[in-house]
């Protein structure tokens, strides 16, 4: 199964490269704030970047409806009992859109810190989102996800004064698993600290081949 997924992921990656697209896989546990982060990101950059979104959930169209309200084209994938997206699902979603050249494809994976770590979707970057309400030991409990990520967003910073979360420990644990991780601390709901994340997206988009 993983071998087939890797072949499908390689096909997706080739498609993204040929169309000069930036594909990003957003992963997290449920309730970390991925959809809110995605909404705020699209709204902030929609005059600069064309976004397309693949939404992964076990059931409902709720998140896709929220993204559709931002004006970005979106395809909802409901996995039923499945706990992750795979590369073939993303491939079918691409044909249902299809995305334009020089665009950004945001893939919001099913909320789960275990299964999605195993499945390459053909993305260029994997961004793991953790929130301060989850506890600072998530990187140690779910090392495969953090080891496979390129960027770690620590969300819900506005709640930091009210929860037992040690920022230094969280980063130390994450870097212990993956010393190359880049961090962005923000509150998607309040919009605080978003600029670093937005600038990273801008730079990666500008670096796409013409």
Automatic annotation (TrEMBL):
InterPro entries: CobW/HypB/UreG_nucleotide-bd (IPR003495), Hyd_mat_HypB (IPR004392), P-loop_NTPase (IPR027417). It comes from the Bacteria. The keyword Lipid metabolism does not apply. Residues 24-181 form the CobW/HypB/UreG nucleotide-binding domain. The keyword Membrane does not apply. Pfam families: cobW. SUPFAM superfamilies: P-loop containing nucleoside triphosphate hydrolases. Keywords: GTP-binding, Hydrolase, Metal-binding, Nickel, Nucleotide-binding, Zinc. Belongs to the SIMIBI class G3E GTPase family. HypB/HupM subfamily. This is CobW/HypB/UreG nucleotide-binding domain-containing protein. It comes from Pontibacter saemangeumensis.
């Amino acid at each position: 199964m993983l071998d087939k997924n890797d072949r499908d992921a390689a096909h997706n990656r080739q498609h993204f490269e040929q169309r000069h697209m930036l594909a990003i896989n957003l992963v997290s546990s449920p309730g970390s704030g991925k959809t809110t982060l995605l909404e705020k990101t699209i709204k902030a950059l929609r005059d600069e970047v064309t976004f397309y979104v693949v939404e992964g959930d076990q059931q409902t169209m709720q998140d896709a409806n929220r993204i559709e309200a931002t004006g970005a084209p979106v395809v909802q994938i409901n996995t039923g009992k499945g706990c992750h997206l795979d590369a073939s699902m993303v491939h079918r979603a691409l044909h249902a859109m299809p995305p334009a050249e020089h665009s950004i494809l945001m893939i919001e994976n099913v909320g789960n810190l275990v299964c999605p770590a195993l499945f390459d979707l053909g993305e260029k970057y994997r961004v793991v989102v953790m929130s301060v309400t989850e506890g600072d030991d998530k990187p140690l409990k779910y090392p495969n996800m953090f080891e496979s990520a390129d960027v770690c967003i620590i969300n819900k910073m506005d709640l930091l004064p009210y929860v037992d979360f040690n920022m230094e420990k969280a980063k130390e644990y994450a870097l212990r698993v993956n010393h190359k991780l880049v961090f962005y601390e923000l509150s998607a709901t309040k919009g605080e600290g978003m600029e670093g994340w937005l600038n990273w997206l801008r730079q990666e988009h500008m670096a796409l081949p013409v």
